[in-house]
Amino acid sequence: MSDLTIPSDGSEMSDLTLRESDVYAETPELHERIDRIGFWLVGGATVMFFFSFVFAYFYLRSLDSNGLWRPAGVDPPTAYGILIAAALALSALAFLYAARVARQRGRGWGLPSGVALLLGLFACVAQAVEYAHIPFGPQSGGYASVFFGWTVFYVVIALISLYRVEVAFAAALRARGEEDGAVPEGLTPAAVYWAFVAGLGVLSWIILYLV
Amino acid sequence: MTGTVSARPLWRRLIGFNLLWGIVLGIVGFYFGWWLGHQIHAESLSFFESTNQNDVALMLGYVFALVGFLVGLGFLNYPLSRMRGHRATQAEKEEGGVGRYFTLCTDHKVVGIQYLVGIGFFFFIGGMNAMLIRAELLRPSPQLFGAGNYLTLVGLHGTMMMGIMTSGILGPFANYFLPLMIGARRMAFPRVESLTFWLLMAAGAILMTTLLFGGFPTGWTGYAPLNDEANYGFDSYIFFFALVGLSMTLLGVNMIVTTITMRAPGLTWGRLPIFCWGAISTALLMVLAAPVLIAALLMVAFDRGVQTSFFLSSAGGSPYLFQNLFWFFGHPEVYLLALPGFGIVLELLPVFARKPLWGYRIAVAGIVGVALLSFFVWQHHLFVSGLNSSLRPFYMFSTEAISVPTGLIFLCGMGTLWRAKIRYRVPMLFCLAWFFNFFIGGASGVFLSDVPSDVATHGSFFVMAHFHYTIMGGLVFAFFAAIYYWVPKMFGIALNERLGKIHFWTMFISFNSTFAPLFALGLMGMPRRVVTYPSNLQPLNDWVSVSAFVLGASMLLFLANVVYSLVIVRKPAPANPWDSHSLEWQTPTPVPLENFDRQPVIDSDPYDYGVPPVPVPLPPPAEAPAPG
Known about the structure:
The structure holds two protein chains of two kinds. Chain A is mostly helical. Chain A has helices spanning about 30-65, 80-105, 110-135, 140-175, 185-210. In chain A, about 70% of the residues lie in helices and about 0% in strands. Chain B has two domains: about 15-85, no CATH class; about 105-585, Cytochrome c oxidase-like, subunit I domain (Cytochrome C Oxidase, Chain A, Up-down Bundle). Chain B has 20 helices and no strands. Chain B is globular and about 70 Å long.
């Protein structure tokens, strides 16, 4: 690049002064901060997305149009709900542990990341299997609509979120054998976000199965 | 991040990840999804047998078309690389030349120009729809399209404008200039930045395909239960707005993170250019409001595709659910369109008034106040829908309260202009017109926030006049102010001043001549979205139509100016033609790939025009040498 073209003597800028700072390099801390704030904002967007389903749940429930909010027999299998919520919670804990280990030791995050990935995928598959065994269909009233809409899009968002879990796991595999494998950037914010998404999954279970 | 100019021949450059392959794979993806949808239709979802359309096939077609489009552009390369354990990188390997405008590019300046051209294209289409609407309304009875096609035309115009133009200022100008104004080298998420643009282009193309599937009868609001019952064409609307919502959300996240994390040293929040405040306030609305729209549209897609009943009261749902969710997004959407305009106008006023921005902190409070209040007003759109009447006073007062922070912004603008030596250049003319237009739009909005007068004017041309004054009078005038102001930086060439002034006056007069009479038409009972009207309203309608055609012609004047200045004359602009103090004008033109060779350090306020420079203390006198 050419030399700085901004006049450092301020000849064209009486009020705004530019001067050379020591460093213009981007630090890992900056990247970590970008990831952290980015994940919080995406978390906010995710909350607003599911807020729509929460709103739909309570709005339709309170209206109970034609008495078809939740006809008799529209009950999802509780065992599946518990299984999915537990798998999500354990997956989040495993990934948080992976991030902690990586931060403290600079390695050893591979196994817990892999466990987190498997548990997360298991939760998604279990949700799909539940659809095959559920005693009602999408057309079975207001609750059924909310149940299918909410859970389907939860699985979609969970799979997208698991991308970062997979990235951490793949980075660990690639770093095998290295004395000090490079910890992937943004691992801690990614773990916090996955815990957040898993938390939403547990909240979904509470509302859809228990309330 | 170093740029290299490719020396490969054209045919070789066409092979790879670019728009051409995006389109090819998009078409292939569409037909694959269409085929897949029909397989599902035939084998699993038997309840489709009673209908004559397969929405699942069309939806899957759009989904796979989008996937193919993004694969062709190269958006999957980086995620797949990360999934194979490779390290994170901040930018793609950029190529120089025109080719980078047709692919995934991580240079925010390229993305800004991509947005400018792409949005301009869809703005032109939306504008042409408006011309056709006004042509139809030259006569009181249907003459060109008929009622159904007219409704589709109105819906296309409204949806295109409300969807695409949401990014009308943030897309081109914030993407290009926000990093420059805060002294950053890039956006926080450069690939996401590019993705937001291509999602928007895919959305626009999908909306256009509605014409192949019979259009949609709902207008831009897509109300239930019509949205559940509409034919194929409504699926285009769903995917259009869902993609626009996704693009907005990602754009908002990127803007906020960039502003928070990448400001130059010394650029405190109190020194942040007011345009950046407008951009991040808009971004916050995008992040929090657009996901609600996406969710609402996905519910519609489920109702249509898998027979849920979110919005069917006969099956346990409620159409009011859609109205609430839509307007929870829809009213902030209005401010998504207006807030960037506030930012642009307040950014430009000090430059042309040669005075500091009066009440900087008040202006910031006004912008943030409008953004926050906009979440508490949405039910004023439902005053006549039969909602619980005890809710009306709250939403009436909250809507009226929003005029307070808006008034603060006006106050700051007027304070800046007070006793100023104004330079009446083209960008400034558009800014001044913005105040005039937005005042009329805002004042008429007070009538619509008031329950009794809203009941009388709801669904009439009065409402249409109001929101065109706020959105076109606000956003589009600010958009053109920004174009005239920043084109010399973006292209190194200024637009012709004389042609610009002709464009301005033609547009300003014809705009007011078009939309002011609509207030009268509305008060005389002319409803929106209806192709027929009483014959006594024809003279006024004809006046409006002719004015609208002149307004359309004023856009051609602008295009002529662009061609004349940027293609024919190509006279280089001065480095800082407006004598602006803002940081973006302190870099060379064209702006280097990484914006600044060295990191700028900010130690003054952004709008200190006319303020005498702080005297630099002289160094202490050197000691006199000892005699002898």
